Structure formats: structure tokens, C-alpha cells
Amino acid sequence: MNIKTLLTLLVVLLGAWSIFHFKAQLGMLVLPLFFGLVLFVTLRLYRLMEKDEPNGKD
Predict the structure, then answer these.
(1) 1-51 per-position pLDDT tens digit
(2) C-alpha 1: how far from its chain's center?
(3) Contact assessment for residue 5 and residue 48, using Cβ atoms and an 8 Å cutoff
(4) Has the keyword Transmembrane been applied to this entry (predicted)?
(5) What is the dihedral of CA 31, 13, 37, 48, to 10 degrees?
(6) Distance from C-alpha of 38 to C-alpha of 11, rounded to nearest angstrom
(7) What is the rounded distance in angstroms from the CA atom of residue 47 to the CA atom of residue 14?
(8) DSSP 3-state helix, strand, coil percentages of the chain (rounded to 5)?
(9) Cβ neighbours of 15 (radius 10 Å)
């Protein structure tokens, strides 16, 4: 695994921990922050899969 992937994983885990640890203080912001975190992970994984795509066409 490269450092960028590990850093992304660390950021996501810290973000998820902070969202659910401080959910009482965040109130109504929990749901938008959660959706933002899911969107971030989805787009990041898509970019990683896109990078692994072979160069040749079928």
C-alpha cells in the first residue's frame, strides 16, 4: 500500500470516529457530515480503481 492510500484511510477513520463521538454536539450536522464522508470514500476508491485499470481496450 502506498502512503497516499494509508493517509486517506487514516483521515476517513478519524473523520468517522469524530462524527460519531461528537454526534450530540454536532446535532443536525451529523447526517450531512456522514454523507460527505461516504462521498469522499466513494470517489477516492473510484479514483484508485480507475488508476488500476489496464491500458488496453477489449
Answers:
(1) 678 778 888 888 998 899 889 989 988 988 998 999 899 888 888 887 777
(2) 16
(3) yes
(4) yes
(5) -160
(6) 12
(7) 21
(8) 85, 0, 15
(9) 16
- Which residue carries 450530540 as its cell? 24
**Contact 12/41 with Cβ under 8 angstroms?**
yes
How many CA atoms lie less than 13 Å away from 45 in the CB half-sphere?
8
Positive or negative: CA dihedral 40, 46, 49, 55 = negative
CB 19 within 8 A of CB 37: yes
